[in-house]
Amino acid sequence: MSVMYGEDDLIPISALQHFLFCSRQCALIHVEQAWAENRLTAEGRIMHDRVHDEGAESRGDVRTERGVSLRSLELGLIGKADVVEFHKTGDGTWLPFPVEYKRGKPKIEDWDRVQLCAQALCLQEMLGVCIPQGAIFYGTPRRREVVDFTQELRDKTADAAGAVRRLLEEGATPGPEYKKRCDNCSMAGLCLPKVIERKRSVSKYLEKETAE
Predict the structure, then answer these.
(1) Which residues are bridge partners to 11 per DSSP?
(2) 1 in a structural domain
(3) What ranges in 108-192 are assigned the alpha helix state H?
(4) Are the C-beta atoms of 187 and 34 separated by less than 8 Å?
(5) CA distance 142 to 53
(6) Can you tell me the distance from the alpha carbon of 165 to that of 150, in angstroms, rounded to the nearest whole number?
(7) Based on the domain organization, do 30 and 86 belong to the same domain?
(8) Which range marks the domain in which residue 122 is found?
(9) Which tens digit of pLDDT belongs to each residue from 65-109?
(10) Coil, strand or helix: which one is 36?
């Protein structure tokens, strides 16, 4: 029997994307409550605000709801979907199709797909339906990437939720590990991956030299 989490134990869906991108970034934001914005995050925030402000609409066999609140007591998640389209099926029922908006380009890594899948799992639990697909709209090419919610992706999403929960419960921020993507991270000025990592290397060198 799966564990059901209480309302006070729910973690943000966005934390899963933060964690898969960088566990240190996730801890800085969700443990230390630190945040910094740069041009990229500002553009993303503005995009999300515009999407949420457009309101509901209905066109033929597609009904669109925006800024939909989400919750899963099974996974212990809470958040908001940018857009949930409801597609009318052949038997007259409406099948949810979550759409996440991202300002950048499609990624090889599954960071964004896991975030979208988490939204779908919340909707499944809330509405009692199976959701096979969703989409991510990327702002740079201005096109959608359709995402199949395979069992592998569902498992990866559940694992990410568990990993984030353990990180938050431990309350310790992982050390930095500089990668090229750190250069565009809004948290770089707070994380200081190059500086701290360099200091750590010097410390290890001195320990090695004095031990000989």
Answers:
(1) 77
(2) no
(3) 111-127, 151-170, 188-191
(4) yes
(5) 19
(6) 23
(7) yes
(8) 7-174
(9) 999 999 999 999 999 999 999 999 989 899 999 999 998 889 999
(10) coil
